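Holo prediction. Input below; ligand is nickel (II) ion.
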Amino acid sequence: MAKPALPPVRSAVRDLTPQLLADRRHLHQHPELSWQETETQAYLLRRLTEIGLSDVRPIARTGATALVEGGRPGPCVLWRADIDALPIPEKTTLPFASVNDGVMHACGHDAHMAIALALARLFHQSRQQLCGAVRFVFQPAEEASGGAAACIADGVLEHPRVAVALGLHISADIPLGAINLAPGPFFAAPTAFRITITGRGGHAAAPHQSVDAIVVAAHAITALQTVVSRSVPPSEQAVLTIGKLQAGFRGNVIAESATMTGTIRTYTRPVLDLTIRRTEEILAGICAAFGATFTFEHTTSCPPLVNDPDVTAAVLDLARGYFGPDHIIGVPTMGAEDMSVFLEARPGCYFWLGARNEARGIAGRHHDPGFTIDEDALPLGVEFGARIIEHFLSR
Ligand code: NI
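Structure of the complex:
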């Protein structure tokens, strides 16, 4: 099949593409889990120092930061890349497949690091003409939680004060040469929950002497389906999924308790509060009806990711010019992404960069042992990243 026509990249980006691919492949081969990214951190610090950036230092335990200071005054733009991998055994046949047992860059954070390193090199080369500064943040533990907040606690938004925060996520779901972005809520706030229903155990042949936690859980699970369908306004979005249910010992014993764990996804605080309140009310009503008790614990690990309307309008404008109007998708996801913590603190924009290519058999899924990306997306990420950073520096 013919290679799709891809948007052009400047010659400086073409020149650094071999190193871009080498960085990506090295990092892909040596993935590390959240909060354990010590070799990744050492590699990044070494590369940033080699390139010649200023303020190169470790942050957030296993992360790194560096600064390009322009020759002329202007605003500071932050570019964020996440760096952690997943506890997944890699099943690709890539020559640079993971050498760390059971750990894989199955979400493309290796690509994010390589693109950020290339941007650092590109802006370092042209720093004399630059108006302002570019702060690079290599954030640990996106897949766990707390990585973004730890970077901010280590001062990455100040000295110089960051005006705009930007970043991208590579996507195996959208085609090479396309981009997905939209203003407003773009990723959801993830709320993990655990419900335990306690009844009274007993002999399976004497149910009248027991409170069957499995029967109560079954009613609760069914009724909880109405939280989103009957309580959340149709104009809003929410997800409530029970992903795990555990109960019972054996077939002739009535279960004393049942535990359900799951996730709630929402774009706004009021919808989150409503979803939590209705879950509690339904559990209370059903447990009261059957004579059981319950506990409901929940934690929201990061806010929803909200793309600033003004910043995103500018990025969309540049995307139309670069990728072409037919290659822009504007579909938010109910997935979560703690870039949201940066975007809560500063106006900014985060987007998906297409790297799917079915003609080359690159059509995997994120967080899958067979996840792959088309590396032709990487120079496009560098070129487009450079264009949007330059836009906000020149304002
Ligand atoms: Ni990811």
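The radius of gyration is 24 Å. That is the main takeaway for now.
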